[in-house]
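Milestone M4 deliverable, item 7.
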Amino acid sequence: MTIEPYADQFLLAALDISGGDVQEILGTDQVMHAAQLATVQTGAIISWLLSQRYVKDELTQANGVTKLIRLTVSGLEHAYLLRRRSESRVEREQYLHNTLVRWAHEHAPAGGWAQLQLFAADDKWWFCGTEVTWDEVFAAIDYLEVKGLLRADRGPTSGPVAAGIAPTPLGTDFAHSHQLLGSFMNSQQPPGASVTNYISSNVVHGAVSGGNMATGGNNTQTSSTGIDADALAALVAQLREMAPNLDLSEDDAQDLADEIDTLEREGTEPGRGARAMRSIRRIMGQAALTAATEQGVVAALGAGAALFG
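Output delivered:
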């Protein structure tokens, strides 16, 4: 298990003990005890938190053991973000919906099942410093079965409770996509019918922007330039789905939301869309990415680059 889930637990306990006061000096042993973490992990946890600038070292012994720390402003903001996300039912459900299919894809042997008991021992069992529950896991499996992304092994010994899971072909496509589930499912919808617009005596097949409109009587034009509207809508949906999961300050989060709105509103014009995408890329670059968010950011920025260069 990586150190990050333990560090998240530590931050939540530090938030509770400090009462949100960055001037409060905390004993590392006290926080470790409150978080129910083994003291043998203290050094690795504190080292990771220091590397992220989430805590400040206030007292380190001659043997290199840090005994007193304070939360930094960044650490406090991150702890509040962990608390908010860990208490959100929607975010917990979204996390499991995105995680279980990919976990099954990684662990299910060909023609077999990934055993769910192994999931409980995996890093993925932890979300924002808290453990998921079996009730949440089984509810997510039921949902993913209905959506056609997972198959569940409900053998004679397990009854209605799934003992193992495996991805369907659609689930495998999702695992390979590096997208968030909502964006992936939207991309699976059949394309809409081509729209013919009648403007004066001109007939325009599809969306036409800028100077693409032919003028004069009885002209028919099919546009093959500009930004694909369906691809733009999918990108905007992907960005909006991912934005709440990024570790951003309140101001940066609002700036990101505004730029996504601009992209949706003006993105069909390549120059304006490219400017909005550059701003989005800059703001996302300021976020501290976790393993859970990195794939989504990479996929979204890749989709933006494909549209706007």
